[in-house]
Amino acid sequence: MTDFSTAILNWYNHEKTSMPWRDEPDPYRIWLSEVMLQQTQIQTVIPYYLKWIKTLPTVKDTAESSEDVVLKLWEGLGYYARARNFRLACQMITENFDGIVPSDPIQFKQLKGVGDYITAAVQSIAFGHPLPVIDGNVRRITSRLLSLPHPPDQHNEEIMDFLTLHIGDTQPGDFNQGMMDLARDVCKPKVPLCTQCPVSCYCSAFSDQTIHRYPVKKEKKIRPHFRVAVGVIWKDSHILVSKRKSNGLLGGLWEFPGGKIQNGESSPECIQRETLEELGIHVTVGDFIKTIQHAYTHFSISMDSYHCRFQTGEPKSIGCSDWMWIKRDELVSLAFPKANHKIFDKIPEVSPFEN
């Protein structure tokens, strides 16, 4: 152990935040928490984690669950590929490792959806392997400690060398968690609490009073915006929903049929074209429901929604992976994107075309 790692561990032991997965001996639960915590705040994750563990408490339970069950548990957490990959990885563990999470980092990293970050986090916390965790928070701390002159992703080697030097064989999981807690609670992005930092004496930026300069930021890309139209398609008292293919954005989620509006196309025309292309059916577009504004990580959308009446054709899974007719009250049993959820309150119990 170095003096730096000792300072991190002493601070963590006194200041660590209580979380449902902290001090948890089960690698499966540690792994689940780390998957959920990627790109997501702790307070958002906690209820999802507790609900998941109550429903699927073991690797075997997740491996044997359906994709719909997994996505419903994940609904609203975003980055749905995480949930799909976690389920597939549990199936790999069941088939190849007798349901036991591998303690070998090389074997563990071969699982579906497992990369450097998840490998380091789970293997250090659950099994004591001295593998540094590197995420945006850790990059921010290290950028300030070393006064790195470029955006952190241009200094991966320096950051890894620094962390490898200090993590040591003693409590590597606590060291990693200490670094992440320190970033969240003290070395904050905008207003770091340098006077409360246990390692400020090792910080180049603090010493030079240049903390505001780090980390050096990358030039932001303009986030594109798309116009989308969807139809709530009625056939008597049932609504048609389709399931997105698993290999794309929001894969595996159910949705109201529709898509991006093309140049020179109206929203009703878009719905009619998309339902024919995706499902092979003809619809009549009726009353406007509402327009939804929704932002994703890399783009944003304006989504027009309309009530539609089914006309002709037999639904087929042409551009989707599945479809079904459901009652209004069955919407809550399926996993939908957040944007679709925003029109649920405008959908009546009976078809507006029956009035």
Sum this structure up briefly.
With 355 residues, the protein is of the alpha+beta class. The protein has 14 helices and 7 strands.
Overview of this protein structure:
The chain is α+β, with helices and mostly antiparallel strands and 355 residues long. It folds into 2 domains: 211 residues, Endonuclease III, domain 1 (Orthogonal Bundle); 130 residues, Nucleoside Triphosphate Pyrophosphohydrolase (Alpha-Beta Complex), CATH 3.90.79. It is 41% helix and 15% strand. Strands 1, 2, 3, 4, 5, 6 and 7 form a 7-stranded mixed beta sheet that branches. Helix 1 crosses helix 11, helix 2 packs across helix 3 and helix 2 packs antiparallel against helix 8. The chain is elongated and about 75 Å long. The termini are far apart. The mean pLDDT is 95.
Key phrases:
single chain, 355 residues, alpha+beta, Endonuclease III, domain 1, Nucleoside Triphosphate Pyrophosphohydrolase, 2 domains, 14 helices, 7 strands, 41% helix
Give the helices and strands, then pairings.
Elements: H1 3-15, H2 27-37, H3 42-55, H4 59-64, H5 67-74, H6 81-96, H7 105-109, H8 116-127, H9 136-146, H10 156-167, H11 172-185, H12 204-208, E1 225-235, E2 238-243, E3 254-255, E4 258-260, H13 267-279, E5 282-295, E6 300-312, E7 322-326, H14 338-341
Parallel strand pairs: 1-6
Antiparallel strand pairs: 1-2, 1-4, 2-3, 2-7, 5-6
Helix pairs in contact: 1-11, 2-3, 2-8, 8-11, 9-11
